[in-house]
Hints:
- This protein is an alpha/beta fold.
- 35% of the residues lie in helices and 17% in strands.
- The longest helix has 18 residues, at 413-430.
- It starts with a strand and ends with a helix.
- 45% of the residues are buried.
Amino acid sequence: MPVARTRSAALVGVAGHTVEVEADVGRGLVGTHFIGLLDTAISEARDRVRSALLNSRFDWPDARVTVSLSPASLPKKGSSFDLAIAMAVLGAAGMVPPERIAEPFFLGELGLDGRVRPVRGVLPAALAAVAAGARTMVVPAANAAEAALVPELAVLPVASLGELVAILREGEARARAPYFDPMELAVPAEEKTLDLADVAGQAQGRCALEICAAGGHNLWFLGPPGTGKTMLAERLTTIIPPLDREQALEVTAIHSIAGTLPTGRPLLARPPFVAPHHTASAAAVIGGGTGQIRPGAVSLAHRGILFLDEAPEFPARVLDSLRQPVESGQVTVSRASGSVTFPARFTLALAANPCPCGLSGEAGRFCTCTPAVRRRYLSRLSGPLLDRVDVKVRLSPPTRAELLADRALTESSATVAERVVEARERAARRLSGTPWRLNAEVPSSLLHGGWRLDHNVLAPLHRAVDLGTLSARGVDRVLRVAWTIADISRRPRPSADEISLALTMWMGEEL
């Protein structure tokens, strides 16, 4: 019998790679053999595929069955190859026409009863299929909407192995899932229960929030319990514009690999908000895991917000591991089996109490912590990490008048969001023709080159550098914040006032 070939996709990081699945049914000692740098899940496919075929009323070849997944140098992990393996075996055994399974990509896990179960990473696999020139992709019915995000593919959703074989025996796999515009498949925005109008007072915190939303800058709120640190951080997403199509597909691909996509409407069109608990491990935050390397919280927050509440409670190893992704916008996870790079361009938001009891510096309440304990508590946030935080704000409890004020008169998220959009548009016009979108992404070479400011405008920076209170990295971050403040103020370039305000916010002083 001839060798039957079909195709599937393997995931490495957020990229899909074409895998050719070949099956040969020939003479020799009866048995099934797999080759091609496989992990345990694929080796177990031998039993899953055999049971699925038998329970779908197809005969398993009474011969030597050899299944090869190539290229052999590409690691292949997970159970998403089950459907492709089953179709290759059926083609080699003559139970389906081999020529009809050669062009499509097949992706899906098989149940022992022949059901086709959903898998992770369908969107990256679909993009890999298009890159390989495929026109058709067969996926589990539960993954059809996700695969339909790629308009160049005809998507054939199937619920069982028997259904797919019947389709192939009748003709080529050219059925198509209903295609919708990707933005119509976006996860509907949750009812807006969060609004900046809910926050009592905290004008300084609200100002910092607007600046960080407009420029993509990192943020640190420091203050006693009940001052609104978490409330403010959670409302950051309410003033950030939705993702564009390219960004939405990028974010969706990451969440697809992580298995966190909602079913039915899989496109994530809103910036994600990820808030890991302080007991999270380094692997959970940065990425890792046994077998296939999964994206961590820093990658799940890509194009969105990574919020660390009670930041000093996180292990020092976790906090310090954030330095590289905060600076580069990506994270590389290395294991003995290889390394994987995930995108991680997020806005970091930190919240912390001033001491373990939280009462340090609060009028009318007595702090039970010793000076040494207070110093040790905040020193858990290392200098190199805080050097990468653009805006630092110390919050105080709201006054009685602020607490009892009519919230209907407080500025809402919608009002602030309009100013944020306008500021981002000003920055986008200035950055047109470059790969950067936000002021926080602008490199040092441009800040001190084409965007260089006059000597008298930079006078506040010169004084801070001379006093040793500002590092080289801090200079760049102050300049980026100053450009954002100028965008919000509708100024073409920052003045000395914007530089002074940005410097004050970087140092965490009272405005």
